[in-house]
Amino acid sequence: KMAADTSVDILQKVLENEILQSAKVVEEHLDAEIQKLDQMDEDELECLKQRRLEALKKSQQQKQEWLSKGHGEYREIPSERDFFQEVKESKNVVCHFYRDTTFRCQIMDKHLTVLAKKHIETKFLKLNAEKSPFLCERLRIKVIPTLALIKDGKTQDYVVGFTDLGNTDDFTTETLEWRLGCADVINYSGNLMDPPFQSQKKYGTSFTKLDKKTIRGKIYDSDSDDD
């Protein structure tokens, strides 16, 4: 027991030391930044201010442009023809191929509505699979729901059913967000190597961490409907 206590103490000291080191690095970085600002003359400060204002203006213009193209909301498009037009004018597009009678499509809708508002850099659409046979054939969509993840007008990746989302109807919006981040179709700020469902104990340890390449290069050949 004494040996165990000693190793706990050592571990604690190591951890405390690491935390102190991290704090020291942050502090030094802040000091350097403050010193840099102190040494700037008025012209340099003015120049820095202008650059920041320019960047802010640019990002506001970009935001307005996205909103004018229908980003920021999850929308249904009426036909295959609309699909080509919508995809042509936006760099990043997520399109949900759904069917009215499939319950899982409603689950997907709920999460996509949230993500469309959060990630206005990406256009979020839905299209009735039964009204778009040509597209479903061309994109080889056989399982409903399927998300087509499109970059620069090309379909780069698919989320087929809920397989990549923890294989459960109860997956979180964060899990879907992570999966879209893996396809680089949204600006994802989390850690791609650590899927959110890893930390949910109820899924056990049967899910391995997926790396970006495995997902992007995945080949799907299921031909069953996922109701």
Automatic annotation (TrEMBL):
Keyword Cytoplasm carried by entry: yes
Keyword Phosphoprotein: yes
Pfam families reported in the protein's UniProt record: Thioredoxin (PF00085)
Annotated InterPro entries: Thioredoxin-like_sf, Thioredoxin_domain
Subcellular location as annotated: Cytoplasm, Cytoskeleton, Microtubule organizing center, Centrosome; Midbody; Nucleus
Keywords tagged on the record: Cytoplasm, Cytoskeleton, Nucleus, Phosphoprotein
Subcellular location, principal: cytoplasm
GO cellular component, one term: cytoplasm
Domain Thioredoxin: 80-163
Domain of life from the UniProt record: Eukaryota
Function comment: Significantly diminishes the chaperonin TCP1 complex ATPase activity, thus negatively impacts protein folding, including that of actin or tubulin.
Subunit structure: Forms ternary complexes with the chaperonin TCP1 complex, spanning the cylindrical chaperonin cavity and contacting at least 2 subunits.
The protein, known as: Thioredoxin domain-containing protein 9
The species this protein was found in: Phainopepla nitens
